[in-house]
Amino acid sequence: PPHEPALLVLVLVLRTLAWGPRHGYAVARWIRETSQDVILVEDRALYLALHRLEENGLIESEWGLSENNRRARYYQLTAAGKRQLQSKAASWTRYVEAVFRILESAEGRARP
Q1: Across residues 84-99, what is the average pLDDT?
Q2: Would you tell me which of 14, 39, 63, 72 could form a disulfide with 23, CB atoms 3.0–4.6 Å apart?
Q3: Is residue 42's pLDDT more than 80?
């Protein structure tokens, strides 16, 4: 089911990388800033997600230099990752819309 937190992190990482290659810290920063500090991805969860995505062929990585001139591993989407992002984003959108319908329902009745 799409509501598992680990799956949400995977989708957010894929979405972040849709904008181009980034290193891990930049991925976490983009998610935090874009969510206006509501979603904070912990380092462990982030790197587990990155490794899982890479193992599944959804992203690939290479070493490069960060904006601080430090060695960093840069991640980017593969074609399979782009397809997975479209699929999972649609699933999450349906899920979030369902949650909103429940939260906004009046007197326990579903809205038409």
Answers
A1: 90
A2: 72
A3: yes
